[in-house]
Give the backbone structure.
Amino acid sequence: MSEARLAEKPAEPAPRREIVFRGGGFLPRPRPLQAWLAFAALLALWQAATGFGWVDAVFLPSPLGIGHAFWGLAVSGELWRNLSISLLRIGSGWLIGSALGLILGLAMGLSSLSRAIGMPLVSSLYPIPKIALLPLLILWLGIGEAPKVATIAAGVFFPTAIATFSGVDAVPRSLIRMSQSFDLPVRSIIWKVILPAALPSILAGFRISISTALLLVVSAEMIGAQFGIGAFLLAAGNLMQSDRLMAGVVVLSLLGLGLGALLGLVEKAFLKWR
């Protein structure tokens, strides 16, 4: 009898074991302190290499030498004169190229006829290096600001058009059909459904195009300009003024970071719904 009761006694539950959560999804963690420490260590190593004579300062000036050259350019006003001219060219070319690219991208995304005509043209002309067109543009438009702005606009036009077309083409057709079922006019469907859904792709194209504009303005100014960051870099390189040359490179880097941060603010303002 006792043995039967022992057999009917339920077994003790196994001890609970914690399960490690593995659903992080590779989310990035902000680590600003580590980034600044790595940057400071790189600068310290660079300064030590030039200070101890491991690297000739003519070929690679020290960070302190670059900072001194940067300060001299800023105090003399030479930096701001060249930078303002380059920014004016970038802004003009980027606005023109982006506006035309948006128009063509929307047309190709919304119209089958525009897509049939525009896609072969964009695919055939996009791989051409736009800086190679500068001599031809000078021949057409004359010597001045117009060829440089046109070169930048041509470089900005194609990535903007492609990004806009891709964004419009990727809009879920169910959203468009639902809007049509509520008898919304075409204009309202474009402004309230298609453009908001395509906006992330359009802004991504803007990031690519602004970098393209920065590259093209330097190249165009090196070929045919008296003032501008590109012309300044070319003159400093020809005179073997490596500290001024690197100061100009730092200006370009800061300019790229500033434009990227500005686009980041635009994305936060227009993409709050995501």
User: Anything to note?
Assistant: Residues 73-269 form a domain with the MetI-like fold fold (CATH 1.10.3720.10). The longest helix spans residues 186-224. The chain is about 75% helix and 0% strand.
